[in-house]
Predict the structure.
Amino acid sequence: MKALLTVGLLILSNTFMTIAWYGHLKFAEMKWFSKLGIVSIVLISWGIALFEYFFQVPANRIGFKDHGGPFSLIELKVLQEVITLVVFSIFTLLLFRTETFRWNHLIGFGFLILAVYFIFKK
């Protein structure tokens, strides 16, 4: 149960962070947003990223072995990175239709999945 809760919170966390980091690139298509300066965009992104922390910090606390969770610190980090990649890929495919995934991207993703396998191997 703690593993699923940790993964769910990490997915939510990474969704907010992806929107904060890359969403402003898409928001620029909106009239009101396109007139904002970089400081305003940074502050808006920072406000969105605040929600990332509301999910990331509890995910790490719930998931970490020293707090009764199922994952080591290294496992938590690798899990978070793979979730970040999946969330980013979905975000990119849905919102940035001009971006394309090539074979080398897929091979790189495959290596990351192998990294997860080896990190979690006992």
